[in-house]
Amino acid sequence: MSKFEDKLAELGITLPEAPAPAANYVPFVQSGNLLYVSGQISKGEDGLITGKLGADMDTEAGAAAARVCAIALLAQVKAACDGDLDRLKRVVRLTGFVNSTPDFTEQPQVINGASDLMAEALGDVGKHARAAVSAASLPLGVAVEIDGIFELA
Where does the record place a coiled coil (predicted)? Predict the structure, then answer.
């Protein structure tokens, strides 16, 4: 197990198998040392995490959904690294999309669910640039979708 997976285990997290793409795209593309991971939707062990922030879901629940997206992102990174997560040198950027009402303004706090996990699990390697934006709707009605760019060794 990698040092990052050891830290995830301390947090009570075991990385699942990387989710398969849901349409006509690949889950990740590597160009040079950069790995571009396709958007990961909020799907936990019990299925899709759906809802609209500002209507039927609060910020705390949205942050929990974003955390699930971060776990899926790391699962994709591990798959891209042939199972060796220690090849991860840096989380470069995350882009978070929040299914929210027009008057909801706490997208950054929602996406903190993912950013906080990256920092907790990866330390300085997990500190990244990011965007957190509202979306009128997301695929399958999910609450959050996040994509990422990662640097690999």
Answer: none
Give the sign of the dihedral formed by CA 69, CA 71, CA 77, CA 78: negative
Tens digits of per-residue pLDDT, 18-66? Answer: 988 989 999 999 999 999 999 999 998 899 999 999 999 999 999 999 9
Angle in degrees, CA 131, 134, 140, rounded to 5:
110
All domains of the chain in start order, with CATH: 3-15+27-152 (3.30.1330.40)
pLDDT in tens, 69-91: 999 999 999 999 999 999 999 99
CA–CA separation, 134 vs 93, rounded Å? 17
Distance CA 44, CA 73 (A): 13
Look up residue 131 and give its two tokens. Answer: 């965007």
